[in-house]
From TrEMBL:
<dbReference type="InterPro" id="IPR027417">
    <property type="entry name" value="P-loop_NTPase"/>
</dbReference>
<protein>
    <recommendedName>
        <fullName>NadR/Ttd14 AAA domain-containing protein</fullName>
    </recommendedName>
</protein>
<dbReference type="Pfam" id="PF13521">
    <property type="entry name" value="AAA_28"/>
</dbReference>
<dbReference type="InterPro" id="IPR038727">
    <property type="entry name" value="NadR/Ttd14_AAA_dom"/>
</dbReference>
<feature type="domain" description="NadR/Ttd14 AAA">
    <location>
        <begin position="35"/>
        <end position="144"/>
    </location>
</feature>
Length: 244
């Protein structure tokens, strides 16, 4: 028969063995750094994410690149605002869950919360959503409760003609897509630029990157170096204790 005192002693011993005081202490073991790369089609998002993943892993960091919402959400047509909402809701629980633990050092999202924000005006212009509905979703996805976890967000844009030329290099067809045509690409570029202009005063960790005149290597080098500086500053120069 195990007495209450013996049970207490054994539980304390197990907690020490598991380092519970350290394991769940978010000050001693910080949460991961979170990056969101969003932007217009063929602006270089996938290339940058792939290269950043390789770079940080080779530097000894444990990195996760969650599957993009567009790859995970296949059962909803892209012709409805429900698609933009659902893909953001796909990324949101990943962000929240990983922010509460220490599984990874760096998490790189291919589109997350700010992506949905940028798409809302598109659906308003297509008359598939009211302005009030769009603003409601925008406010929700940028709530402080979870948007604060994104340490760096890049809005990547590109000249439509250059973007289409990049698309054709690796595409099996040159037939224009719903979003990969000059008119829509220009519209999306303007949506992202306007969103950046509006949000950057409130979110200083936003960056607008026009990849038009950059090679793949230049894009990765510039963004990679900038991210190191951002992480270093947040950790050592301007550390802010998070309130959960």
């Amino acid at each position: 028969m195990i007495t209450e005192s013996i049970l207490e002693e054994k539980c304390i011993a197990l907690q020490k063995r598991l380092n519970c005081g350290i394991r769940y202490n978010r000050i001693r073991i910080p949460r991961p750094f979170f990056i969101e790369i969003t932007g217009t089609p063929s602006a270089g998002k996938t290339t940058v994410i792939t290269k950043l993943d390789t770079f940080f892993k080779r530097k000894g960091f444990r990195v996760l690149c969650p599957q993009e919402g567009a790859q995970a959400i296949r059962h909803i047509e892209r012709t409805t605002p429900l698609y933009s909402i659902r893909t953001a809701l796909y990324a949101l629980p990943i962000l929240i869950n990983l922010s509460q633990g220490h599984l990874y050092d760096i998490v790189i999202f291919d589109r997350c919360l700010f992506d949905s924000y940028c798409w809302m005006p598109y659906w308003v212009d297509k008359k598939q959503m009211t302005k009030e509905e769009a603003e409601l979703y925008q406010k929700f996805f940028l709530l402080h409760f979870f948007a604060r976890y994104l340490d760096a967000v890049y809005f990547m844009v590109c000249n439509p003609a250059i973007a289409i030329a990049r698309e054709h290099k690796t595409s099996l067809t040159k037939e224009p897509g719903r979003t990969t045509n000059p008119k829509t690409l220009q519209e999306l570029k303007e949506y992202h630029e306007r969103a950046f202009e509006k949000l950057s005063p409130e979110f200083p960790h936003l960056y607008l990157f026009d990849s038009t005149n950059y090679s793949e290597q230049q894009m990765v080098t510039i963004i990679g170096n900038q991210l190191i500086e951002v992480f270093y500053a947040k950790t050592f120069l301007n550390p802010i204790e998070e309130i959960t």
